[in-house]
Amino acid sequence: MPEPANGDELEHLLSDRGPQLLRTAVLLGGSQQDGEDLLQAALERVVRQRRAVGGGLEAYLRRTLYNLAADGWRRTRTWHRKLPLIRADQVTATPDVAAAVDLRDALIRSLRQLSPQQRAVIVLRYWEQFTEAETAEVLGCTEGTVKTAASRGLKRMRELAGSWLTNDAELAGQEH
User: Fold this and answer.
1) What is the pLDDT of residue 3?
2) Sign of the CA dihedral running 107, 82, 130, 135
3) What letter does residue 131 receive in the DSSP assignment?
4) In principle, which of 7, 25, 47, 84 could form an S-S bond with 35, CB 3.0–4.6 Å?
5) Could you read off the pLDDT of 117-131 as tens digits, one per residue?
6) Residue-by-residue DSSP string for 45-103
């Protein structure tokens, strides 16, 4: 039977990796508040299931994060509405900052339109920079499934980005 995770180990993990775990949870949840709630729920589950955790506390916590996020997406089918959209008329920053916000908004919008599996794979592979093997292990699937989900997810994001770039070009042409 694996050794249960103790409170000191969890506290050490959160002090060392807390910001990265929160960033991942925010990306999966779609907003800061939903990400914090998701991380809190995952931590509660880890504390309740201490005996099942064994030695890989961070891996268990990450897998719990992804599973809780996917459960939420499946359960409500409204996960894509969780992220409030930033409207251009609400941005009062300088043009450089506004462009960065617009780019980030476009990226988040495209992520929201992916399937839960594709979204989780894209977040793990390209934000968290996990290898295909690590991603497969966290998600409990094969490396082939990770490759397929990443390929299809990136293709879909390119399609979506193309339509936004076209719309932006048309808007810029109307201003002149």
Assistant:
1) 47
2) negative
3) -
4) 25
5) 999 999 889 888 889
6) HHHHTHHHHTT-HHHHHHHHHHHHHHHHHHHHS-GGGSSPPPPGGG--S-HHHHHHHHH
pTM above 0.85, yes or no: no
Of 50 and 115, the structure prediction assigns the larger pLDDT to 115
- Backbone φ, ψ for residue 50 (5° rounding): -50, -40
What phi, psi does 30 have (nearest 5°)? 100, -15
Terminal C-alpha separation, the chain: 70
Instruction: Report the chain's mean pLDDT, rounded to a whole number.
Output: 77
Query: Beta-carbon neighbour count of residue 91 at 10 Å?
Result: 15
**Structure tokens of 67?**
């599973």
What is d(CA 25, CA 36) in angstroms, rounded to the nearest whole number? 7
- Answer whether 125's CB lies under 8 Å from 132's CB: yes
62-103 pLDDT per residue, tens: 888 888 888 776 666 543 444 444 444 444 544 567 777 777
Count CA atoms closer than 13 A to 123's CA, side-chain side. Answer: 30
